[in-house]
Amino acid sequence: MSPEELQLRIGLVVRRHRERLMFSQEGFAATAEIYRTHYGNIERGKQNASMEYLLKIAVALNIPLSTLFAEAEVLDLDRAVREPPSPPRVGRPPGRRR
Asked: pTM (2 decimals)?
């Protein structure tokens, strides 16, 4: 596994946990005391996260840091990338017109 792939995997695992807690990216970043844009880049796998930020994220998610790495290792990356965000985005349902 390359470092870039690990970044992406960790970001996807973090997103799943954040969505399970029903946090927006902005709300979660504030809770974890991380700049909103920096957190968004970590979650998308575009930003290399330091151990300090990973620890802040794990504490805000209320899970051990080791869990982030363990789940990232076994994540089915192809399937996870295709999954739509959950909860569904707010807005008009597809196919409905006013």
From this structure: 0.79
